[in-house]
Amino acid sequence: MKKIAIIGAGPAGIEAASILASHDCEVQLFEKSADTLSNITDKAFLFPDFSSAQELADKLNAKLLNDKIKVILNTEIVDIKKDNDDFKMIDRDGKTYVADKVLITTGYNVFDAHRKEELGYGIYKGVITSLDLERMIRHKQITNSIGEEPEKVVFLQCVGSRDEKSGNHYCSKVCCVTAVKQAIEVRKQLPKAQIYVFYMDLRMWGQGFEELYREAQEQYDIRFVRGRISEASATFDSRIQIKSEDTLIGQPLKMTTDLLVLMVGMEPSKGTRTLAEKCGLAGPYKFIASVGPHTNDNNTATEGIFVAGTAKRPMSIRDTITDSTAAALEMLK
Ligand SMILES: Cc1cc2nc3c(=O)[nH]c(=O)nc-3n(C[C@H](O)[C@H](O)[C@H](O)COP(=O)(O)OP(=O)(O)OC[C@H]3O[C@@H](n4cnc5c(N)ncnc54)[C@H](O)[C@@H]3O)c2cc1C
Ligand code: SF4
Protein backbone atom coordinates (compact mmCIF):
# COMPACT_ATOMS: atom_id res chain seq x y z
CA MET A 1 0.00 0.00 0.00
CA LYS A 2 1.42 3.39 -0.99
CA LYS A 3 1.57 6.19 1.59
CA ILE A 4 0.69 9.51 -0.07
CA ALA A 5 0.88 13.05 1.29
CA ILE A 6 -1.27 15.73 -0.38
CA ILE A 7 -0.63 19.32 0.59
CA GLY A 8 -3.69 21.59 0.24
CA ALA A 9 -7.37 20.61 0.50
CA GLY A 10 -8.83 22.57 -2.40
CA PRO A 11 -10.60 20.90 -5.36
CA ALA A 12 -7.25 19.54 -6.66
CA GLY A 13 -6.19 17.98 -3.34
CA ILE A 14 -9.61 16.49 -2.57
CA GLU A 15 -10.15 14.97 -6.03
CA ALA A 16 -6.71 13.35 -6.00
CA ALA A 17 -7.17 12.10 -2.41
CA SER A 18 -10.42 10.39 -3.31
CA ILE A 19 -8.98 8.67 -6.42
CA LEU A 20 -5.82 7.53 -4.64
CA ALA A 21 -7.77 6.21 -1.63
CA SER A 22 -10.05 4.23 -3.94
CA HIS A 23 -6.89 2.58 -5.31
CA ASP A 24 -5.86 1.41 -1.85
CA CYS A 25 -3.41 4.19 -1.04
CA GLU A 26 -3.22 5.59 2.46
CA VAL A 27 -3.64 9.35 2.10
CA GLN A 28 -2.73 12.17 4.48
CA LEU A 29 -4.37 15.40 3.26
CA PHE A 30 -2.89 18.50 4.90
CA GLU A 31 -4.80 21.79 5.04
CA LYS A 32 -3.45 24.94 6.64
CA SER A 33 -6.90 26.43 7.36
CA ALA A 34 -9.55 25.28 9.80
CA ASP A 35 -11.63 23.95 6.91
CA THR A 36 -11.27 22.60 3.38
CA LEU A 37 -12.09 24.46 0.12
CA SER A 38 -11.70 28.06 1.30
CA ASN A 39 -11.23 29.25 -2.30
CA ILE A 40 -14.60 27.73 -3.24
CA THR A 41 -16.80 28.62 -0.27
CA ASP A 42 -15.85 32.30 -0.67
CA LYS A 43 -17.76 32.32 -4.02
CA ALA A 44 -21.50 32.55 -4.59
CA PHE A 45 -22.27 30.91 -7.95
CA LEU A 46 -19.87 29.30 -10.40
CA PHE A 47 -19.28 29.77 -14.10
CA PRO A 48 -20.11 28.31 -16.54
CA ASP A 49 -23.49 27.07 -15.20
CA PHE A 50 -24.30 29.35 -12.23
CA SER A 51 -24.35 26.33 -9.92
CA SER A 52 -23.97 26.94 -6.20
CA ALA A 53 -20.38 27.03 -4.88
CA GLN A 54 -21.54 25.63 -1.53
CA GLU A 55 -23.19 22.65 -3.25
CA LEU A 56 -19.95 21.87 -5.09
CA ALA A 57 -18.05 22.14 -1.79
CA ASP A 58 -20.49 19.70 -0.16
CA LYS A 59 -20.06 17.23 -3.05
CA LEU A 60 -16.28 17.44 -2.91
CA ASN A 61 -16.17 17.13 0.89
CA ALA A 62 -18.32 13.98 0.66
CA LYS A 63 -15.47 12.39 -1.33
CA LEU A 64 -13.32 12.59 1.80
CA LEU A 65 -15.54 10.11 3.68
CA ASN A 66 -13.15 7.24 3.20
CA ASP A 67 -11.23 5.43 5.95
CA LYS A 68 -8.05 5.62 3.91
CA ILE A 69 -8.07 9.44 3.91
CA LYS A 70 -6.86 11.31 6.96
CA VAL A 71 -7.62 15.04 6.74
CA ILE A 72 -5.18 17.01 8.88
CA LEU A 73 -6.54 20.57 9.32
CA ASN A 74 -4.80 23.67 10.74
CA THR A 75 -1.50 22.25 9.50
CA GLU A 76 0.66 24.34 7.20
CA ILE A 77 3.42 22.37 5.51
CA VAL A 78 6.47 24.58 5.09
CA ASP A 79 9.08 22.15 3.75
CA ILE A 80 9.49 18.73 2.15
CA LYS A 81 12.73 16.79 2.58
CA LYS A 82 13.90 13.62 0.84
CA ASP A 83 14.83 10.96 3.42
CA ASN A 84 16.26 7.83 1.68
CA ASP A 85 13.22 6.40 -0.18
CA ASP A 86 10.70 8.50 1.78
CA PHE A 87 9.67 12.12 1.96
CA LYS A 88 9.32 14.06 5.19
CA MET A 89 6.73 16.83 5.35
CA ILE A 90 7.54 19.47 7.96
CA ASP A 91 4.77 21.67 9.38
CA ARG A 92 5.04 25.19 10.81
CA ASP A 93 5.54 23.81 14.35
CA GLY A 94 8.38 21.53 13.23
CA LYS A 95 6.32 18.31 13.38
CA THR A 96 7.17 15.80 10.64
CA TYR A 97 5.04 13.37 8.63
CA VAL A 98 6.32 10.60 6.34
CA ALA A 99 5.09 9.46 2.88
CA ASP A 100 6.34 7.57 -0.21
CA LYS A 101 5.03 10.19 -2.66
CA VAL A 102 3.87 13.79 -2.36
CA LEU A 103 1.32 15.83 -4.32
CA ILE A 104 1.47 19.62 -4.03
CA THR A 105 -1.96 21.26 -4.44
CA THR A 106 -1.38 24.47 -2.50
CA GLY A 107 -3.28 26.62 -5.02
CA TYR A 108 -3.52 30.36 -5.46
CA ASN A 109 -4.24 33.66 -3.74
CA VAL A 110 -5.76 36.63 -5.52
CA PHE A 111 -3.57 39.58 -6.45
CA ASP A 112 -3.45 42.18 -3.65
CA ALA A 113 -5.26 45.19 -5.18
CA HIS A 114 -3.55 47.59 -2.73
CA ARG A 115 -0.50 47.22 -4.97
CA LYS A 116 -2.32 49.21 -7.70
CA GLU A 117 -2.53 52.40 -5.65
CA GLU A 118 -3.77 54.46 -8.61
CA LEU A 119 -7.01 52.43 -8.61
CA GLY A 120 -7.82 53.44 -5.02
CA TYR A 121 -8.48 50.05 -3.40
CA GLY A 122 -8.38 50.44 0.40
CA ILE A 123 -8.57 54.24 -0.07
CA TYR A 124 -12.09 54.71 -1.49
CA LYS A 125 -14.89 52.50 -0.18
CA GLY A 126 -16.55 52.36 -3.61
CA VAL A 127 -13.56 50.45 -5.04
CA ILE A 128 -13.87 46.73 -4.35
CA THR A 129 -12.39 43.50 -5.73
CA SER A 130 -14.15 40.63 -7.48
CA LEU A 131 -13.81 38.64 -4.24
CA ASP A 132 -15.54 41.40 -2.24
CA LEU A 133 -18.30 41.33 -4.85
CA GLU A 134 -18.66 37.53 -4.52
CA ARG A 135 -19.38 38.11 -0.80
CA MET A 136 -21.96 40.84 -1.59
CA ILE A 137 -23.68 38.60 -4.18
CA ARG A 138 -23.74 35.71 -1.70
CA HIS A 139 -25.39 37.85 0.98
CA LYS A 140 -27.68 39.57 -1.57
CA GLN A 141 -26.33 42.90 -0.38
CA ILE A 142 -24.71 44.81 -3.21
CA THR A 143 -24.17 48.31 -1.86
CA ASN A 144 -22.11 51.42 -2.64
CA SER A 145 -19.77 53.21 -0.22
CA ILE A 146 -22.66 54.66 1.81
CA GLY A 147 -24.67 51.46 2.02
CA GLU A 148 -27.13 52.31 -0.76
CA GLU A 149 -28.08 50.35 -3.87
CA PRO A 150 -25.65 51.36 -6.66
CA GLU A 151 -27.07 52.90 -9.85
CA LYS A 152 -23.92 52.19 -11.81
CA VAL A 153 -21.37 49.35 -11.52
CA VAL A 154 -18.11 49.27 -13.51
CA PHE A 155 -15.87 46.20 -13.80
CA LEU A 156 -12.18 46.52 -14.68
CA GLN A 157 -10.39 43.48 -16.13
CA CYS A 158 -6.74 42.41 -15.86
CA VAL A 159 -5.92 43.91 -12.43
CA GLY A 160 -2.55 42.40 -11.52
CA SER A 161 -2.40 40.24 -14.67
CA ARG A 162 -0.96 41.07 -18.10
CA ASP A 163 0.52 44.01 -16.27
CA GLU A 164 4.07 45.36 -16.53
CA LYS A 165 3.93 47.30 -13.26
CA SER A 166 2.98 44.35 -11.04
CA GLY A 167 5.42 42.08 -12.88
CA ASN A 168 2.68 39.58 -13.78
CA HIS A 169 2.80 39.25 -17.55
CA TYR A 170 0.61 36.15 -17.68
CA CYS A 171 -3.18 35.98 -18.16
CA SER A 172 -5.10 34.70 -15.11
CA LYS A 173 -7.51 32.89 -17.40
CA VAL A 174 -10.63 32.89 -15.18
CA CYS A 175 -11.31 36.61 -14.64
CA CYS A 176 -12.87 37.46 -18.03
CA VAL A 177 -15.59 34.87 -17.64
CA THR A 178 -15.86 35.64 -13.90
CA ALA A 179 -16.66 39.29 -14.81
CA VAL A 180 -19.39 38.11 -17.19
CA LYS A 181 -20.77 35.76 -14.49
CA GLN A 182 -20.69 38.49 -11.84
CA ALA A 183 -22.17 41.17 -14.13
CA ILE A 184 -25.15 38.86 -14.81
CA GLU A 185 -25.53 38.21 -11.07
CA VAL A 186 -25.47 41.97 -10.41
CA ARG A 187 -28.13 42.50 -13.09
CA LYS A 188 -30.35 39.82 -11.46
CA GLN A 189 -30.12 41.60 -8.10
CA LEU A 190 -30.15 45.19 -9.44
CA PRO A 191 -32.48 45.23 -12.48
CA LYS A 192 -32.16 49.02 -12.98
CA ALA A 193 -28.38 49.45 -12.65
CA GLN A 194 -26.13 50.47 -15.53
CA ILE A 195 -23.36 47.88 -15.83
CA TYR A 196 -20.09 48.32 -17.76
CA VAL A 197 -17.11 46.01 -18.23
CA PHE A 198 -13.78 47.61 -19.26
CA TYR A 199 -11.52 45.09 -20.96
CA MET A 200 -8.23 44.83 -22.93
CA ASP A 201 -9.57 41.87 -24.87
CA LEU A 202 -12.06 39.25 -23.78
CA ARG A 203 -10.76 35.71 -23.44
CA MET A 204 -13.77 33.40 -23.63
CA TRP A 205 -11.80 30.20 -24.09
CA GLY A 206 -14.05 27.57 -22.47
CA GLN A 207 -17.13 25.72 -23.64
CA GLY A 208 -20.18 27.93 -23.17
CA PHE A 209 -18.17 31.06 -22.28
CA GLU A 210 -18.67 32.89 -25.59
CA GLU A 211 -22.41 32.18 -25.39
CA LEU A 212 -22.48 33.60 -21.86
CA TYR A 213 -20.77 36.76 -23.12
CA ARG A 214 -23.40 37.16 -25.87
CA GLU A 215 -26.19 36.53 -23.37
CA ALA A 216 -24.71 39.19 -21.07
CA GLN A 217 -25.09 41.77 -23.85
CA GLU A 218 -28.34 40.62 -25.45
CA GLN A 219 -30.40 39.52 -22.43
CA TYR A 220 -28.86 41.38 -19.52
CA ASP A 221 -27.93 44.71 -21.12
CA ILE A 222 -24.32 44.66 -19.94
CA ARG A 223 -22.09 47.05 -21.88
CA PHE A 224 -18.54 46.13 -22.80
CA VAL A 225 -15.99 48.91 -23.39
CA ARG A 226 -12.54 48.16 -24.78
CA GLY A 227 -10.29 50.34 -22.65
CA ARG A 228 -8.04 50.41 -19.64
CA ILE A 229 -8.81 52.52 -16.58
CA SER A 230 -5.69 54.43 -15.57
CA GLU A 231 -6.91 56.15 -12.43
CA ALA A 232 -9.78 56.24 -9.93
CA SER A 233 -10.58 59.04 -7.47
CA ALA A 234 -13.46 60.02 -5.17
CA THR A 235 -16.09 62.68 -5.93
CA PHE A 236 -17.72 64.97 -3.34
CA ASP A 237 -20.86 62.82 -3.29
CA SER A 238 -18.92 59.61 -2.42
CA ARG A 239 -18.90 58.24 -5.95
CA ILE A 240 -15.85 57.10 -7.92
CA GLN A 241 -14.52 58.96 -10.93
CA ILE A 242 -12.55 56.92 -13.41
CA LYS A 243 -10.21 58.02 -16.19
CA SER A 244 -9.87 55.75 -19.15
CA GLU A 245 -9.55 55.57 -22.89
CA ASP A 246 -11.99 53.86 -25.24
CA THR A 247 -9.35 52.15 -27.36
CA LEU A 248 -11.82 51.21 -30.11
CA ILE A 249 -12.62 54.83 -30.94
CA GLY A 250 -9.31 56.23 -29.59
CA GLN A 251 -10.94 58.72 -27.23
CA PRO A 252 -10.15 59.51 -23.59
CA LEU A 253 -13.10 58.90 -21.26
CA LYS A 254 -14.19 60.08 -17.83
CA MET A 255 -17.02 58.39 -16.01
CA THR A 256 -18.47 58.34 -12.51
CA THR A 257 -19.69 55.15 -10.93
CA ASP A 258 -21.02 53.95 -7.58
CA LEU A 259 -18.93 50.79 -7.53
CA LEU A 260 -15.68 49.99 -9.29
CA VAL A 261 -14.99 46.23 -9.23
CA LEU A 262 -11.33 45.25 -9.76
CA MET A 263 -11.04 41.82 -11.40
CA VAL A 264 -7.99 40.64 -9.49
CA GLY A 265 -5.85 37.92 -11.05
CA MET A 266 -4.43 34.74 -9.56
CA GLU A 267 -0.94 34.48 -8.04
CA PRO A 268 0.75 31.46 -6.41
CA SER A 269 -0.45 31.17 -2.79
CA LYS A 270 2.05 31.78 0.02
CA GLY A 271 2.21 27.99 0.50
CA THR A 272 2.91 27.44 -3.20
CA ARG A 273 5.70 30.03 -3.19
CA THR A 274 7.27 28.67 -0.01
CA LEU A 275 7.36 25.06 -1.24
CA ALA A 276 8.47 26.13 -4.73
CA GLU A 277 11.47 27.93 -3.22
CA LYS A 278 12.33 25.48 -0.41
CA CYS A 279 12.13 22.41 -2.67
CA GLY A 280 13.85 24.06 -5.67
CA LEU A 281 10.73 23.62 -7.82
CA ALA A 282 9.98 27.26 -8.69
CA GLY A 283 8.86 27.98 -12.23
CA PRO A 284 7.77 31.28 -13.78
CA TYR A 285 6.26 33.74 -11.27
CA LYS A 286 7.00 31.24 -8.42
CA PHE A 287 4.27 28.79 -9.38
CA ILE A 288 5.49 25.15 -9.09
CA ALA A 289 7.09 24.08 -12.37
CA SER A 290 6.11 20.80 -14.02
CA VAL A 291 8.66 18.89 -16.09
CA GLY A 292 6.90 19.44 -19.41
CA PRO A 293 3.63 20.80 -20.74
CA HIS A 294 2.46 17.70 -22.66
CA THR A 295 3.23 14.30 -21.18
CA ASN A 296 4.88 15.21 -17.84
CA ASP A 297 2.69 18.04 -16.67
CA ASN A 298 2.10 16.57 -13.19
CA ASN A 299 5.72 15.55 -12.54
CA THR A 300 8.22 17.92 -10.98
CA ALA A 301 12.01 17.93 -11.26
CA THR A 302 12.11 15.82 -8.05
CA GLU A 303 11.07 12.23 -8.64
CA GLY A 304 8.23 11.38 -6.23
CA ILE A 305 6.93 14.95 -5.89
CA PHE A 306 3.96 15.82 -8.11
CA VAL A 307 1.89 18.96 -8.69
CA ALA A 308 -1.72 19.67 -9.70
CA GLY A 309 -4.16 22.55 -10.06
CA THR A 310 -3.52 26.25 -9.56
CA ALA A 311 -0.27 25.65 -7.66
CA LYS A 312 1.01 25.24 -11.23
CA ARG A 313 -0.82 27.99 -13.13
CA PRO A 314 -4.22 29.73 -13.20
CA MET A 315 -7.08 27.41 -14.17
CA SER A 316 -10.82 26.89 -13.65
CA ILE A 317 -12.34 24.29 -11.33
CA ARG A 318 -13.14 21.95 -14.22
CA ASP A 319 -9.52 22.09 -15.44
CA THR A 320 -8.22 21.75 -11.86
CA ILE A 321 -10.21 18.57 -11.27
CA THR A 322 -9.15 17.10 -14.63
CA ASP A 323 -5.55 17.97 -13.83
CA SER A 324 -5.64 16.39 -10.37
CA THR A 325 -7.22 13.23 -11.83
CA ALA A 326 -4.26 13.03 -14.21
CA ALA A 327 -1.85 13.59 -11.29
CA ALA A 328 -3.45 10.79 -9.24
CA LEU A 329 -3.15 8.35 -12.17
CA GLU A 330 0.49 9.34 -12.68
CA MET A 331 1.17 8.71 -8.97
CA LEU A 332 -0.30 5.20 -9.20
CA LYS A 333 2.25 4.16 -11.85
C1 LIG B 1 -12.79 35.77 -8.03
C2 LIG B 1 -12.69 34.34 -8.52
C3 LIG B 1 -13.84 33.69 -8.94
C4 LIG B 1 -13.76 32.37 -9.44
N1 LIG B 1 -14.90 31.78 -9.89
C5 LIG B 1 -14.81 30.55 -10.46
C6 LIG B 1 -15.97 29.96 -11.06
O1 LIG B 1 -17.08 30.52 -11.01
N2 LIG B 1 -15.82 28.75 -11.70
C7 LIG B 1 -14.60 28.11 -11.79
O2 LIG B 1 -14.50 27.05 -12.43
N3 LIG B 1 -13.49 28.66 -11.21
C8 LIG B 1 -13.58 29.85 -10.55
N4 LIG B 1 -12.44 30.38 -9.98
C9 LIG B 1 -11.20 29.57 -9.95
C10 LIG B 1 -11.22 28.53 -8.77
O3 LIG B 1 -11.25 29.22 -7.54
C11 LIG B 1 -9.95 27.64 -8.88
O4 LIG B 1 -9.97 26.97 -10.14
C12 LIG B 1 -9.87 26.54 -7.80
O5 LIG B 1 -10.09 27.04 -6.51
C13 LIG B 1 -8.46 25.92 -7.86
O6 LIG B 1 -8.37 24.84 -6.95
P1 LIG B 1 -6.96 24.35 -6.34
O7 LIG B 1 -7.24 23.12 -5.57
O8 LIG B 1 -5.94 24.30 -7.40
O9 LIG B 1 -6.48 25.52 -5.36
P2 LIG B 1 -7.18 26.24 -4.11
O10 LIG B 1 -8.65 26.26 -4.25
O11 LIG B 1 -6.43 27.51 -3.94
O12 LIG B 1 -6.84 25.25 -2.87
C14 LIG B 1 -5.55 25.20 -2.29
C15 LIG B 1 -5.67 24.79 -0.83
O13 LIG B 1 -4.35 24.61 -0.29
C16 LIG B 1 -4.28 25.15 1.03
N5 LIG B 1 -2.85 25.45 1.31
C17 LIG B 1 -2.08 26.41 0.74
N6 LIG B 1 -0.81 26.34 1.22
C18 LIG B 1 -0.79 25.32 2.10
C19 LIG B 1 0.25 24.73 2.92
N7 LIG B 1 1.50 25.21 2.89
N8 LIG B 1 -0.06 23.68 3.74
C20 LIG B 1 -1.34 23.17 3.77
N9 LIG B 1 -2.36 23.70 3.01
C21 LIG B 1 -2.08 24.73 2.18
C22 LIG B 1 -5.18 26.39 0.92
O14 LIG B 1 -5.61 26.82 2.20
C23 LIG B 1 -6.32 25.85 0.04
O15 LIG B 1 -7.33 25.24 0.83
C24 LIG B 1 -12.49 31.69 -9.47
C25 LIG B 1 -11.34 32.35 -9.03
C26 LIG B 1 -11.43 33.66 -8.57
C27 LIG B 1 -10.16 34.36 -8.15
S1 SF4 C 1 -8.74 36.25 -18.08
FE1 SF4 C 1 -9.28 38.23 -18.95
S2 SF4 C 1 -9.23 39.65 -17.19
FE2 SF4 C 1 -8.11 37.81 -16.58
S3 SF4 C 1 -6.00 38.33 -17.07
FE3 SF4 C 1 -6.82 37.19 -18.84
S4 SF4 C 1 -7.55 38.77 -20.24
FE4 SF4 C 1 -7.25 39.75 -18.23
Mean pLDDT, to the nearest integer, reads: 96
> Oligomeric form of this entry?
single chain
Low-confidence stretches: none
Shape estimate? elongated
* Count of distinct structural domains: 2
CATH class (first level) name of the largest domain:
Alpha Beta
Span between termini: 13 Å
Largest sheet: 5 strands, parallel
Task: Give, in order, the helices and strands.
Answer: EHEHEEHEEEEEEEHEHEHEEEEEEHEH
CATH superfamily of the largest domain: FAD/NAD(P)-binding domain
The percent range for helix content is 25-40%
Q: Which architecture of the largest domain would the CATH scheme give at its second level?
A: 3-Layer(bba) Sandwich
Rg, rounded, reads: 21 Å
Summing up helix and strand content along with how strands pair, one would put the structural category as alpha/beta
Task: Name the bound molecules.
Answer: flavin-adenine dinucleotide, iron/sulfur cluster
Helical run tally: 8
Number of strands: 20
Which strand order spans the largest sheet, edge to edge or round the barrel?
Answer: 5-2-1-9-20
**CATH topology (level 3) name of the largest domain:** FAD/NAD(P)-binding domain
Portion of residues in beta strands equals 25-35%
